[in-house]
Amino acid sequence: MRFATTAIHAGQPPDPATGAIMTPVYLTSTFVQQAPGVHKGYDYARTNHPTRAALEKNVAALESAEHGLCFASGLAAETALIATLKSGDHVVCGRDVYGGTYRLFTKVFESFGVDFTFVNIHHLDELRKALKKSTRIVWLESPSNPLLTITDLAEASRLAHERGAKVVVDNTFATPYLQQPLALGADVVVHSTTKYLGGHSDVVGGAIATNDKNLYERLKFLQNAMGGVPGPLDCFLVLRGTKTLAVRMRQHCENARRIAAFLREHRDVKQVFYPGLPSHPGHETAKRQMRDFGGMISLELHGGTERNIAFTSKTKIFALAESLGGVESLVGHPITMTHASIPKEERQRGGLPDALVRLSVGLEDVEDLIEDLSHAIAATG
């Protein structure tokens, strides 16, 4: 099956008991057993749950993976992945990375003896130099958050595998509709399903997809042992979201392309970060490994940090809020919001300007969005 058909149907046959076309929300914490240890595949909802199982099959199918696991948040999924490591193991991670990921790595897992090195990972020479004998994971975002840098996933995977490391790709920005990291050589894909997979800003969740059976079994154990699982209604909401993922992503991309072109020509805009622009340094790589260029744009206006912060409060349609990937357009200031946990010196090494503004382009009429941005720019000029 092709992508949109898979998104609508994978893991979601009609309910055998009633014929319901939508996957039921099983609001139960436990399941009756015929005899001790004899049951229909479900005994306790933390361990296995039918609504969650449907979502796990769906996410795996979208990523062309054999195995899928779902979690209570994207960070819960990341926690399970890093919990597969032991003291002394080493992780190479991009500097331009979600602030919550940086905080988890440095403020939680470093205290357990896991070693992290942050580099400008889209520059593959920096990745190559950072690899050690103890490197177990190379952690990538492409496009990255919030600078939208592009990493050659096939070449990065080749370099990591030469040193015996596994490659984890956070595919949240691209979604499986635009990019298939496992087909490019990655070992694991991780998502915040809160974002584009859910798509409606009404649920928090995370997911992992992989073809590595041994790793899947370890992660499945940790999912149960650590307990960071999503509730059944959360799973239902994400399943509802994935049904429209293909059509939504097409419009996100179209709107973002129009807005990026508008911003690129505006005299008050200092720089625009969008991989769909031919001027973007990762444009050719993105064109090769992605179906389209996504719905995220970052920019900086002339006039310094104060003007850019003021700009985020002047829009009427773009709402000033955390998160991304919903049907509605959002605007944010990363260093005071999503990336506040990353120290200034680390942000500077990654090239993240204090003035940077991030846009999550929604599904509104693009002419209204462009007018909204134009008025907000003028209001701060």
Give the beta-strand count: 12
- Considering DSSP H and I runs of 4 or more, what fraction of the residues is helical? 25-40%
**From N to C, what is the helix and strand string?**
HHEHEHEHEHEHEEHHHEHEHEEHEH
Q: Multimeric state of these chains?
A: single chain
Helical element count? 14
CATH hierarchy, class of the largest domain: Alpha Beta
Output the structural class: alpha/beta
Topology:
Layout (H helix, E strand, L loop, with lengths): L2 H7 L40 H13 L4 E5 L2 H9 L7 E5 L4 H10 L6 E5 L4 H7 L4 E7 L11 H10 L3 E5 L4 H4 L9 E5 L13 E5 L2 H14 L5 H12 L1 H21 L3 E5 L9 H7 L6 E6 L2 H9 L6 E2 L9 E3 L11 H6 L7 E4 L5 H14 L2
Parallel strand pairs: 2-3, 2-4, 4-5, 5-6, 10-11
Antiparallel strand pairs: 1-7, 6-7, 8-9, 9-12, 11-12
Helix pairs in contact: 1-2, 2-9, 3-4
Describe the protein in words.
The model has no long low-confidence stretch (mean pLDDT 97). The protein is α/β, with parallel strands linked by helices and 381 residues long. Helix 2 (50-62) runs parallel beside helix 9 (232-243) and helix 3 runs parallel beside helix 4. It folds into two domains: 3-243, 3-Layer(aba) Sandwich (Aspartate Aminotransferase, domain 2), CATH 3.40.640; 245-379, Aspartate Aminotransferase, domain 1. It has helices at residues 3-9, 50-62, 74-82, 99-108, 124-130, 153-162, 175-178, 213-226, 232-243, 245-265, 283-289, 304-312, 344-349, 366-379; strands at residues 67-71, 90-94, 115-119, 135-141, 166-170, 188-192, 206-210, 269-273, 296-301, 319-320, 330-332, 357-360.
